[in-house]
Write a sequence for this structure.
């Protein structure tokens, strides 16, 4: 028997023994963890990278080791490719809606009920955690009811009215829209929330703290360890809400989606790994409380149409590790080079080849990248060729996307879209009640199962 498989099989057997199974009652600790835009290929490519890069860890990703496995469909109510609002609503409320809508039905008015409120009514504590703004679509699906996901200020009002116990994420987008309205800080304070915005305040939060809102930017994992990580947010949530009442906690890795839209593979992998660190924290907790906890890890949809053609893992890691920043950093650079013709196309080309470690670059790839750099640095609509190239890359920076595609190719992967796709996502679970998430299901089933667990067991 292959050693790796043996370890995996043993792990699963041990886990299901520990979890008991078949006993009556409701779970005390319920975790739903959502990798935004994290399709099957995203989980797989991060797994391969982790196994090669961190051989000491042996098992790859924590989320891929959970014994119960499923494939989950994600389309919105009319069968279209979903956005994060409709998919978040499906997971949170167990019901389909149209894209853009949060916590309301397809008529944009009928309120839908999130399982987080069921948990609150059942006397449990509730935590909502994310690596993106806390009023962004996925987290908001668990506490807001608005026809449009961009209604950030109103989403903030729902947040403070929710009475949920722990919110942690990046700075609220609603702050930008609060000009002629009651400032968000006032809303938060008046609702009695302890509002924390830095590491020192975060460290001062201790068990028993009630109604906490942490707003602090995490940045991108590829650019180095943030002052507070998603795993830290998750660990703190457990610490604050631990107790007889139990809790429901939703944790989202939100920038897996953003880097998928950018077709930025290295950043995508690092974001998946940062999310998986949070999964590992929860898994460790579940192993300590096997008879009382359930953990479900899923995604709201796939982003980027990522395909894995495969490459030698060593080559893959070497290619990916050349990239030091997330894509927007390079976008900004190229924009600066363009200003007033500050940097000639040949120089820009050499700098990008150097930054991504592309030398030597074979002929086709060289031509592709040279054309893309020329198009990115040209004044708008100068010649037909650059127009054509710009069209190819949509609104993206042609030079940067061309580099990111070359890097993905060297890593054995290929992006086929800048948007969301309709492919099924992987769902894994562990815990006494995890079996009901097994097999093939729809994202609404996850919400329905969670509701049943929380209300009836
Ligand atoms: Zn997206």
């Amino acid at each position: 028997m292959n050693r790796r498989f043996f370890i995996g099989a043993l792990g699963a057997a041990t886990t299901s023994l520990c979890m008991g199974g078949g006993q009556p009652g409701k779970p005390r600790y319920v975790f739903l963890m959502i990798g935004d835009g994290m399709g099957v290929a995203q989980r797989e490519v991060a797994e391969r990278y982790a196994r090669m890069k961190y051989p000491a860890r042996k098992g790859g990703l924590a989320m891929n080791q959970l014994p119960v496995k499923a494939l989950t469909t994600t389309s919105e109510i009319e069968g279209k490719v979903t956005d994060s609002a409709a998919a978040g609503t499906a997971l949170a409320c167990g019901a389909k809606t149209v894209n853009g809508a949060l916590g309301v039905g397809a008529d944009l008015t009928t309120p839908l009920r999130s399982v987080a409120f069921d948990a609150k009514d059942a006397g449990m504590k509730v935590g909502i955690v994310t690596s993106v703004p806390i009023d962004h679509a996925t987290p908001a699906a668990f506490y807001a009811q608005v026809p449009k996901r961009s209604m950030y200020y109103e989403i903030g009002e729902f947040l403070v009215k929710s009475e949920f116990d722990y919110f942690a994420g990046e700075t609220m987008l609603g702050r930008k829209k609060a000009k002629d309205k009651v400032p968000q800080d006032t809303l938060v304070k008046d609702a009695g929330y302890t509002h924390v915005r830095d590491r020192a305040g975060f460290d001062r939060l201790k068990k028993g703290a009630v109604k906490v809102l942490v707003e602090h930017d995490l940045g991108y994992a590829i650019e180095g360890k943030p002052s507070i990580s998603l795993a830290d947010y998750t660990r703190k949530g457990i610490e604050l809400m631990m107790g007889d009442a139990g809790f429901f906690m939703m944790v989202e890795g939100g920038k897996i989606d953003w880097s998928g839209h950018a077709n930025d593979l290295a950043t995508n992998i690092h974001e998946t790994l940062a999310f998986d660190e949070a999964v590992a924290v929860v898994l460790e907790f579940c192993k300590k409380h096997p008879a009382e906890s359930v953990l479900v890890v899923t995604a709201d949809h796939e982003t980027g149409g990522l395909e894995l053609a495969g490459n030698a893992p060593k080559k893959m890691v070497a290619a990916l590790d050349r990239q030091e920043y997330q894509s927007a950093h390079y976008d900004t650079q190229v924009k600066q080079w363009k200003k007033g013709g500050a940097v000639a196309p040949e120089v820009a080309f050499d700098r990008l080849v150097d930054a991504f470690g592309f030398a030597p670059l074979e002929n086709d790839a060289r031509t592709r990248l040279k054309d893309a750099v020329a198009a990115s640095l040209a004044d708008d609509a100068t010649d037909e060729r650059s127009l054509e190239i710009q069209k190819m890359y949509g609104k993206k920076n042609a030079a940067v996307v061309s580099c990111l595609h070359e890097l993905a190719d060297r890593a054995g992967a290929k992006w086929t879209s800048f948007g969301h796709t309709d492919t099924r996502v992987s769902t894994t679970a562990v815990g006494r009640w995890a079996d009901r998430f097994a097999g093939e299901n729809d994202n609404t089933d996850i919400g329905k199962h969670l509701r049943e667990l929380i209300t009836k067991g």
Remarks:
- The chain has two domains: 3-307+424-455, 325-411.
- The longest helix spans residues 265-288.
- The chain has a mean pLDDT of 91.
- The CA atoms of residues 140 and 232 lie 21 Å apart.
